Amino acid sequence: MARVFSGIQPSGELHIGNYLGAVQNWVRLQHQHDCLFSVVDLHAITQPYEPAALAQRTLDMAISLYAVGLDPERCIVFVQSQVPEHTELNWLLTTVTPLGELERQTQFKDKSQRQESVPAGLLNYPVLQAADVLLYEATLVPVGEDQLQHLELMREIARRWNSRFANGRAAERGEGFGFPEPQALLSTAKRVLGLDGQAKMSKSLGNTIGLFETPETIWEKLKPAATDPARVTRRDPGNPDICNIFTIHQGFSPPETQALVARNCRTAGWGCLDCKRVLADNMIAALTPVRERAQELRSQPRRVGETLRAGAAKARAIARRTMERVRRRMGLLEGARV
Ligand code: TYM
Question: Model-level pTM?
């Protein structure tokens, strides 16, 4: 059984971009592998944020994850800051991370442009992300396409740490310790575009459909959403392969419907609005029970908090074992921790 790790920022909203790009896969994977999923609050604070609202947003994101079907009996769901080993490993990994690689990260370049004064934490962001995954020796990381560069750097960090500190021969005998190199796992909807069809769907761009929106709002937002840009009039045939609405169909509609949609798009048998109506119906059917579950969980914040703490305790038991081995290999004085 592979070990799976992935994380999501408490951005305030689970939307169909991060859901179809990553979280829908998490729900599936929990039945097949040994999985850990984290609400990464320490990553979120590298961007300007409101301290008074962060804890609630963190709890809301955890509730969203439970509501879409992550089951604490089948996988470990926890809040990153409740397992302090993440920050400890982060520091240790910075000592083998090349500065140039960090400066080259596209997300760093984008996000630092939007800030007047760039905090060092933003540069360090991918190292913390590497620590998240390596701490659990995870080999599979289900993410959207925008995370691929971070994953590549993560492998580079693992290789550099291994070549400096892992004992190769002992590792071959199964006695040493070295980090495995994690691989990304992409979904069919690896890059869901926003409703405007311009950039990736993202809360900060305001181009999302939230998973918990009402049926009326879902339809209101889908109606004007961008489709294949070459399909100008009702009679033009379309190309589902480049249509964002078809990408979303792949997450919500059964294979027979997808085939029907694709055929009617290519032959102009349906207009875009016909296709969207079918999608809206399927989305609403799938999301109504999810919305109801989230509502129920929101009324029990204490219970959710306890479930998260239990998750953090399970994660921490694994993290502690890794850290003992990492500290030993890096030559830190044993027995010095109180
Ligand atoms: P975050 O919170 O931005 O997004 C969570 C996951 O959703 C995917 N995603 C998308 N996929 C397709 N289309 C979209 N429009 C879209 N928007 C978001 C993201 O690729 C991601 O998989 N750095 C990470 C969080 C993180 C992490 C980790 C991930 C921290 N530590 C360790 C994996 C492993 C992030 O900001 O994700």
Answer: 0.96
